[in-house]
């Protein structure tokens, strides 16, 4: 990408890299995702003038292998509904638009950003 003078890197972080939750003992996970967000910023700063854009996609609560137990637990689902503006977890396809935006020419003036797709969890 640097040799070509163009490219896009999208790192996958998490909204947990931007906020503390306190109710889920995932300090290591949260720290690693915060590190990924700042790595994205630093690489954007280093490589932007060479034509490479670097951003981070930060999903909220989506069903994955890691969250399977959470989405199978009614108490956890109630917590997600209470803590998320949309009152639910995300569906896989709801990351598509954000990913396509960051990867496409629609975001040619966007770099060093963390795009949070969390149904409003971090807004509350």
Describe this structure in words.
The protein has 124 residues and is α/β, with parallel strands linked by helices. It has a single domain (17-123), classed as Rossmann fold (3-Layer(aba) Sandwich), CATH 3.40.50.720. The chain has four helices and three strands. It has helices at residues 27-47, 68-71, 74-83, 96-103; strands spanning 7-12, 52-59, 114-117. The chain has a three-stranded parallel beta sheet with strand order 1-2-3, with helices on both faces. It is elongated, with a radius of gyration of 16 Å. The chain starts with 6 loop residues before the first strand and ends in a 7-residue tail after the last strand.
Question: What features would you highlight for this structure?
Answer:
single chain, 124 residues, alpha/beta, Rossmann fold, 3-stranded parallel sheet, 4 helices
Describe the structure concisely.
This protein is an alpha/beta fold and 124 residues long. It has one domain: NAD(P)-binding Rossmann-like Domain (Rossmann fold), CATH 3.40.50.720.
Overall CATH architecture: 3-Layer(aba) Sandwich
What Rg is obtained from the alpha carbons, in whole angstroms? 16 Å
CATH structural fold name: Rossmann fold
Total of DSSP H or I helical runs spanning 4+ residues: 4
User: How many individual β-strands?
Assistant: 3
Oligomer: single chain
Helix content: 25-40%
By helix and strand content, what is the structural category? alpha/beta
Mean pLDDT: 97
| Biggest sheet statistics | 3 strands, parallel
Percentage of β-strand residues = 5-15%
| Rough outline | elongated
Per CATH, the class reads Alpha Beta
Question: Domains counted in the coordinates: how many?
Answer: 1
Uncertain runs are none
